[in-house]
Amino acid sequence: MPALKDLSIIIDYPRSSEIDLPLEAFTGASHVTTLNLTPICHLTLPHPWPLTNLTIDCGQDNGACYSPCIGTILACKNTLRTCTILSEFGRMLALQHSPREPTKFPCLETLDLRQAAMDFCELIACPNLRSLRLSAWTLPESVRPFEALHVMLKTSSDCKTLRSLTLEGLPYERGQDFTACMQRLPNLIALTLKNDDGEELLLG
């Protein structure tokens, strides 16, 4: 399949974390730029694909988390432009699979991280990011999304090209955390805040 560019794989199986994708079947597909996986645990590409768009959706599957995919995601650092990751579980496991230094994604412009996948902020530097969405409706108390965002801003030269930011369901009990992050983003054009009911918070 040398002409293949878009690949989507959706698995409906109670224990999808036990499944290894037969991606070796796509060895000849060297031009894949868009990859969508729902859900997946083990991911090893047959060879480096020039991925520009990547979506990993672990959703409500109790056995799946995005952490085993981290190495593959980081391998796309030089080409990836859009990345969406949803993972209900696996925060601590993800950190165990993390590199010591943030990996730079020079081309990444759009990043959408949901639930436990928000800790991916701590693993990357994306100085040319233009749009960021963080969604955390059901995070445990141990997860501190603003700390993760602060880490990414620090390693990404404050994301000076960031124009659009959406924060959904994040805890605002500590207003100073939110304020500290916002003060590092003077170039924002669009800011959306949503509370636990999914309703937008209007800022006067």
What does it look like?
It comes from Schizophyllum amplum. This is F-box domain-containing protein. There is one protein chain. This protein is an alpha/beta fold. The chain has four helices and ten strands. The chain has a single domain, classed as Leucine-rich repeat, LRR (right-handed beta-alpha superhelix), CATH 3.80.10. Strands 1-2-3-4-6-8-9-10 form an eight-stranded parallel sheet, with no helix packed on it. Strands 5-7 form a two-stranded parallel sheet. Strand 3, helix 1 and strand 4 form a beta-alpha-beta unit. The N and C termini lie far apart (54 Å).
What ranges have pLDDT less than 50 throughout 5 or more consecutive residues?
Answer: none
Q: Would you tell me which CATH topology applies?
A: Leucine-rich repeat, LRR (right-handed beta-alpha superhelix)
Strand order of the largest sheet: 1-2-3-4-6-8-9-10
Number of helices: 4
Mean pLDDT: 79
* Number of E-state strands: 10
Mind telling me the C-alpha Rg?
17 Å
Q: Give the tally of structural domains.
A: 1
Quick overview of this protein structure:
The protein is α/β, with parallel strands linked by helices. It has one domain (6-194): Alpha-Beta Horseshoe (Leucine-rich repeat, LRR (right-handed beta-alpha superhelix)), CATH 3.80.10. It has helices at 70-75, 91-96, 145-155, 175-182, and strands spanning 6-10, 34-38, 53-57, 82-87, 103-104, 110-115, 124-125, 131-135, 164-168, 190-194.
